[in-house]
């Protein structure tokens, strides 16, 4: 008994250093959730998890590029938030190419030479958001990082001839290695600077290997260890939350919408449950345009927004239910754009957006984020109680 108590006290010391508000009683309760005899132990399962902002109201937000946040379009977006029931903005702090979008003043980050000052004055921006009572979320694109990959190829994936791997897109994109602890710490350092600036939530995107990685894994050269790709990716998320939780910020992750409906995507290293148990908020990208023929019984899911969002919501609840007290807030990304490239697509406007929101509400989900890459959002939408 004394040895068990000593072990508990040692564990409490480790947990409380990363979670200052944890009591010994709470740890004891958490320890009662360990797997029963014969069940598989999950080293990625957190010992204790507590929302650092339990009194935060339901978040309904929009995506904002760094160019919009740092330019004149911000006024238009603030007007939209002021005049509606929207209350949050997801702003690019590290964008899709890997640019850190404002001057952090952090010498460790400056050494990487990856800052592109798109937002001219981060403190002025944060003060403006605060004045308008906007909940600020920092979007950090993690492993898709063309800039860092080009500057530091050893942190990325190399072709057999030693050249940097890039995908076939125009312009081509490169990823950095999710096994790399340096890559982990680099992105977490960006996140810590965002928290210092005043962002209340850190949203990690592209938390995965490149699409189809399993088809090129055997020919690419990169550092790896005995962990699976799923373990490497989920390990980053667990580590990131442990590092950021003491700062009082929430941690969220974007993930493919269909990940809630299928087994783990081992090729790209995404496991919906293992990631979800280590975040405060999970944001699945459930855009109807991302689903192909047959999903949720729809011939063209893009043309049936209510059916598609409802089906994905049901699957999300089923996937997360086994997590019990580790279940995160569910806050999906929904579609405020017309997917003209999809055969049979429909034009998205007020009705289609409200159908998505109504489907979320009907499935007990009150939070959501709107995506439009150009930040041009549909006017006149009822974001709270859309009628059928």
Report on the structure:
- The structure is a single chain.
- By secondary structure, the protein is α/β, with parallel strands linked by helices.
- It contains 12 helices and 9 strands.
- The protein has helices at 2-18, 24-31, 66-69, 73-82, 107-110, 122-131, 146-151, 181-197, 229-244, 272-276, 305-320, 350-362; strands at 60-64, 88-94, 135-141, 201-205, 250-256, 281-285, 329-330, 333-335, 368-371.
- A 9-stranded parallel beta sheet has the order 7-6-5-4-3-2-1-9-8.
- Helix 8 runs parallel beside helix 9 and helix 11 (305-320) runs parallel beside helix 12 (350-362).
- The longest helix has 17 residues, at 2-18.
Notable characteristics:
globular, 388 residues, 12% strand, nine-stranded parallel β-sheet, disordered N terminus, single chain, alpha/beta
Secondary structure elements and pairings:
Layout: H1 2-18, H2 24-31, E1 60-64, H3 66-69, H4 73-82, E2 88-94, H5 107-110, H6 122-131, E3 135-141, H7 146-151, H8 181-197, E4 201-205, H9 229-244, E5 250-256, H10 272-276, E6 281-285, H11 305-320, E7 329-330, E8 333-335, H12 350-362, E9 368-371
Parallel strand pairs: 1-2, 1-9, 2-3, 3-4, 4-5, 5-6, 6-7, 8-9
Radius of gyration: 21 Å
Q: Overall mean pLDDT score?
A: 92
Quaternary: single chain
Fraction in helix: 25-40%
Strand order of the largest sheet: 7-6-5-4-3-2-1-9-8
Beta percentage is: 5-15%
Q: Count the DSSP helices.
A: 12
Task: Report the end-to-end length measured between terminal Cα atoms.
Answer: 60 Å
The biggest beta sheet reads: 9 strands, parallel
């Amino acid at each position: 008994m004394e040895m068990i108590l000593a072990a508990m006290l040692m564990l409490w010391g480790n947990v409380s250093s990363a979670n200052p508000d944890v009591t010994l009683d709470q740890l004891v309760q958490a320890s009662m959730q360990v797997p029963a005899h014969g069940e598989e132990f999950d080293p990625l399962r957190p010992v204790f998890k507590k929302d650092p902002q339990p009194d935060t109201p339901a978040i309904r937000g929009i995506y904002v590029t760094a160019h919009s946040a740092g330019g004149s379009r911000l006024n238009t977006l603030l007007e939209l938030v002021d005049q509606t029931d929207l209350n949050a903005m997801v702003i690019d702090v590290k964008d899709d190419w890997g640019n850190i979008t404002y001057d952090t003043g952090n010498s460790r980050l400056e050494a990487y030479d990856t800052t592109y000052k798109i937002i001219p004055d981060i403190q002025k921006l944060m003060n403006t958001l605060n004045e308008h009572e906007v909940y600020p979320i920092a979007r950090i694109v993690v492993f898709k990082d063309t800039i860092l990959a080009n500057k530091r190829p050893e942190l990325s994936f190399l072709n057999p001839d030693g050249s940097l791997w890039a995908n076939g897109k125009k312009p081509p994109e490169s990823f950095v290695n999710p096994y790399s602890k340096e890559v982990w710490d680099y992105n977490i350092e960006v996140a810590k600077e965002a928290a210092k600036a005043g962002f209340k939530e850190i949203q990690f995107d592209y938390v995965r290997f490149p699409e189809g990685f399993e088809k090129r894994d055997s020919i690419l050269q990169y550092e790896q260890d005995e962990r699976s790709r799923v373990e490497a990716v989920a390990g980053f998320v667990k580590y990131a939350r442990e590092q950021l939780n003491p700062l009082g910020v929430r941690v969220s992750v974007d993930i493919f919408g269909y990940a809630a409906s299928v087994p783990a995507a081992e090729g790209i290293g995404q496991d919906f449950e293992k990631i979800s148990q280590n975040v405060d908020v999970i944001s699945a990208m459930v855009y109807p345009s991302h689903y192909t023929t047959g999903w949720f019984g729809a011939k063209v899911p893009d043309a049936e927004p209510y059916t598609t969002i409802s089906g994905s919501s049901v699957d999300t609840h089923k996937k997360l239910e086994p997590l019990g007290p580790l279940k995160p807030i569910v806050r999906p990304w929904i579609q405020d754009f017309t997917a003209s490239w999809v055969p049979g697509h429909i034009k998205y406007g007020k009705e289609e957006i409200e159908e998505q929101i109504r489907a979320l509400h009907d499935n007990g989900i009150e939070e959501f984020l709107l995506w439009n890459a150009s930040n041009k959002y549909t006017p006149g939408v009822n974001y709270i109680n859309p009628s059928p």
